[in-house]
What we know:
The chain is of the alpha/beta class. It has helices spanning 3-7, 36-39, 52-66, 86-95, 109-121, 166-169, 174-185, 187-200, 207-221, 232-252, 261-276, 283-304, 315-326, 330-340, 347-362, 368-377, 382-388, 391-400, 410-417, and strands spanning 25-29, 46-51, 70-76, 102-107, 126-130, 142-147, 150-155, 161-165. Helix content is 53%, strand content 11%. Helix 12 runs antiparallel to helix 16 (368-377). The longest helix is centred in the last third of the chain and has 22 residues, at 283-304.
Amino acid sequence: MDIDSLLLGIENCRCGKRHECDIEKVIIKKGALNELQSILSGFSNILLVADDNTFAVCGKKVSECLGSSVNDKLIYSQKPLLVPDERALDELNQMVSGDTDIIVGVGSGVINDLCKLVSFRRSIPYCIIATAPSMDGYASTVSAMIENNMKITYSAHTPKYIVADIDVLKNAPIDMIKSGYGDTLGKYSSLNDWLLSSVVNDEYLCVTVFDIVSSALEKTAQIGPRLKDRANEDIKLLFESLVIVGIAMSYVANSRPASGSEHHLSHFFEVVGLLNNEPYLPHGICVACSSVLTQRLREAIIEKEEFKQASEFVRENWEREIRRIYGKAADGIIELQNKTKLYEKDFAAVYKEKWKDIIDTLKKTPKADYILGLLDAADISFDEFKAVYSPEKISDAIWFAKDLKDRYTVLWLYYLLKYKGE
């Protein structure tokens, strides 16, 4: 299905639900910025939001295109690095007046998340002018924020319009293009985690949405070797795939089709990096490399063949590790897991009953070596990933990244089977 068809929604899906998408228009083409004035002609009090970099890239042109309709501007400083935290959120909130009739964001991940959440909470529409094919959140109904030193995903709404000018996208920094490609490859992991949770927890899974994401993934996976050439058709295909995945998330009103264990590892590296003032890789690149790690966990579990028993959970030991790793963010993480009650569930009984189905599910993901080959072809370095993150940090992520979220993934299966040290 193409994007225009997906925007119409699915009235009677075989999963029994009606899938909707509130995006009115998606424009992905050369010269897309030239259509802004006609698209936004019905708005007269626009708040334009960008950062230093994105305003220079195309925000100034956007402002010129919209002319007197732009009532105010917020240009975030990138010194220090802009993150979607309480400070940035408050700064944007204060710029929204009673007359603001639409927020127009110019940027990618952080700008999109901030505009999405504030516009949702203030009950006004927003439009995103994409500056890079770097992530799949443009069309989703969730917003990722960092609050109280935790990565929190909030429900929000979709943009009213998505405008992506190929001439802008193709000239984005190559790491941002690779990041979008890497975020796409992460769907090998997230889709399998969704299947796994449907088996283990009877979680709702829509086969139609699953297939939409899987199809976008397979079409995009092969363009890795050509990314460096920045060909119009490849950049367009990459961005279309990212938008399609976002629409899939809006269909099920959560990020499950696109975010699983690989994202939890990436969030771990980002959160711990911010807590300890340590470096971390761009989101999508980290997601792609983390999907190699999660696939290796699946392969380790598959090799066990038979389920014997899950080790006993010792809360005192777990809490000690959480406090060691997360420091001042530990209380929030402990509180989250107290609410999820995942540690209280008798997974051993479920695993014993459904072990064959679990193994069959884990086998449906491509091998780690195949994913590594895709990364190599796109010049995404797994060696750099291992250089940035020490073996100790990677080990901590494998065992305790799962605790950042309330979502079951292969990280829970691996943890409760206790392969550590074997």
